[in-house]
Amino acid sequence: MCDFADDCGDGSDEGKNCNSQYKTCSPQEFTCQNFKCIRKQYRCDGEDDCGDHSDEVDCKKENNTCPEGKFTCNNGQCIDSQLVCNKVPDCSDESDEPLHCNVDECAKVEIHRCGHKCVDTLTGYYCDCNHGYKLLEDGKACADIDECIETPGVCSQHCSNTPGGFYCKCDERYYERQNDEHTCKRKDATEPWLIFSNKYYVRNMSVDGRQYNLIHQDLMNVVAIDFDMKEEEMYFCDVTAKTIFKSKFGAIVDDVKIEKVPVIKHDSHGLEGIAIDWVGRKLYWLDRHSKNLDVSELDGTKRKTLKSGVVDPRAIVVHPGIGYLYFTSWHLQAYIAKMGMDGSNFTRILTWEDDIAWPNALTIDYFTDRIYWADAHLDYIAFADLEGRHRHVVLSGNKVPHVFALSIFDDMLYWTDWNMKAIIRANKFTGQNFTVIRNTTHRPYDVHISHPLRQVPYNNPCGQTNGGCTHLCLLAPPLESTYLNVEGYIEEGAPSYKCACPNQFYLARDMKTCIANCTSGQHRCGGADEKCIPWFWKCDGEPDCKDKSDEPESCPARHCRAGTFQCGNGNCTPSTTICDGTDDCGDNSDEQNCDLPCPVSDFKCRSSGRCILDSWKCDGDADCKDGSDEDPEICHKRSCDPDTEFSCKNGRCIPKLWMCDFDNDCGDDSDEPAYMCRQRNCTTGWSRCPGQSNYRCIPKWLFCDGKDDCRDNSDELPENCPKCNAETDFKCNNNRCIPKQWMCDFADDCGDGSDESDAQCKG
């Protein structure tokens, strides 16, 4: 039993009954239908290695063609052409002597019924099509080939399909079509520069890697950058500093540092991607901690949350030409989403069902209207149109082992790779001309090409009067319901705009004026940075308002570090401990004023009075110490998203993938019905845990990662883990395999610290 052989004859001794005993196949192996693991190179080799023939199913066999002057029999045998139709069967299958020998079927249309051409052969005929057409499945009719979709790299930029052919077009404002009628060449002579970051510095570099300059150093963890060509300013996120900075372009000269100015420095504990709207003059960013997508003016004022509940966000890009932005989430239900730059029309254009697992990188080709992304788990770079259609893989496998960020310019892609510790480029359609531009000491993070054509001048619908809006004027999708033609390119319709208000403000009936809605538990900033801030930010030694009205001269003398709470007894405590239900000060002064009302966008914890983001309410995690944000009495009123969430019996909403995961996420066990879970199949790309009686499904890439994802540690047992490659991999103490170049790089890649141990890194 469970030996991969059907000994019973009906399969009852194998298959699902043995799930707990079969080991999970490694990425280097093929999983047979009987759950046996074989080497990938054994698939489609003509031999039944699985024992159930599943390794020989759906194998495309190359057509056997015989040399010139020879006839190909139906069974692949080759005989001399002169032996065909000689009334003697020379092919072992007698296919050289059909009943219709020496008959010209092409002479009569009623016989061949070919749409375009009929080609007579010695033993019959076949239909063929004119150039630019393909034969349909009936073997007779012909259909036009859409080269623009089926051969994406046929044109550098825009492609128009025509009957039997196609026509390439270039954006004539900036490019000229070359004599080959396919390639677009830039008219300007401005050299593009590549800007990239790592934890400690930001550098710029010529695209051939020959010129290499330092812009900023002594940074802590710069994961994302973007730039504004109009003002020649660069914006970057420092995760450790919890701040978005901006600075002028340029390299450090004579050790004179370029000043960096904080733009966003509050409530930004998990900064990820950033994007500059160079037309509407706005800053967009993602935050992993708050799970928010926010927008503000370029100076950080008038901050507004556009979308909440974005779990594990990563990359974000904007397209001001159509009023949309795109961003990624690498949560268990990973996706690439599209949303209006005003927060409208949120749509997942690609999901985990489209082989999206860890979408790290994102960029837009504004001249072809295609979106490019890279998956750091499935190891590929691909593109699609702006609706997620007509997907095409550019590169996959060991050339892209862990892409972190992408950029594009002309016909080349540029990206950073953690495994290779390098900055690389290749053709944006084919992946050809693969070149390592520069190797780096530390893992490179974000990368951008700096050139005016990466920020082409679209019309700004907000105009010179800010659209009449008193606060934010945000670009929005076109008012027309359709703005892309059938080829996926912008045809008609320009982006519109919408007036919006900062957090804690609301829009008046005129849809242009914002009115403050600060509570008694907040201080209202004045001037250009009109906003509401928590009461405990006042007199904390750090100006949070641009007009500094939160730090008047009447504030008591301070000795605590700026940004912390100074207790009544003189002790200091982080502001995050205020109203958490615990006397952190020792005199309970951090638990006073907790009965003040929370902002309208927040939820107030029942016992402590702490204010938390409203998006954290009923999300399956108890953020209030008393669990009041997950109270069934509150949560049952919320309607679950039928596409992505499971509705618990107690009213709580949890991600669908949490159902049957061996955890009581609902709190009433309604997500763990054993009779259903044992019969439930795992999602594509996921595997059932090897442990006996464990029905939990986890992504295949969580196996052997040093963490107990199965809850019984069966995904970390040596017998269920692939063997490391002795030449390229280091085996961690927890059985995880990591690239050798990750050793001794001051990052705990193993998860147990064994790749950074003194035994490995000293001597």
From TrEMBL:
Species annotation: Culex pipiens
Gene3D superfamilies named among the record's database cross-references: Laminin (2.10.25.10), Low-density Lipoprotein Receptor (4.10.400.10), TolB, C-terminal domain (2.120.10.30)
Domain EGF-like, chain residue ranges per copy: 127-142
Membrane-topology descriptor: Single-pass membrane protein
One Pfam family cited in the UniProt record for this chain: Ldl_recept_b
InterPro entries xrefs: 6-blade_b-propeller_TolB-like (IPR011042), cEGF (IPR026823), EGF (IPR000742), EGF-like_Ca-bd_dom (IPR001881), EGF-type_Asp/Asn_hydroxyl_site (IPR000152), EGF_Ca-bd_CS (IPR018097), Growth_fac_rcpt_cys_sf (IPR009030), LDL_receptor-like_sf (IPR036055)
GO biological process entries: receptor-mediated endocytosis
The protein's name in its UniProt record: Low-density lipoprotein receptor-related protein 2
Alphabetized UniProt keyword annotations: Disulfide bond, EGF-like domain, Endocytosis, Glycoprotein, Lipoprotein, Membrane, Receptor, Repeat, Signal, Transmembrane, Transmembrane helix
Family label: Belongs to the LDLR family.
Top-level taxonomy: Eukaryota, Metazoa, Ecdysozoa, Arthropoda, Hexapoda
GO cellular component: apical plasma membrane; receptor complex
Main location (coarse class): membrane
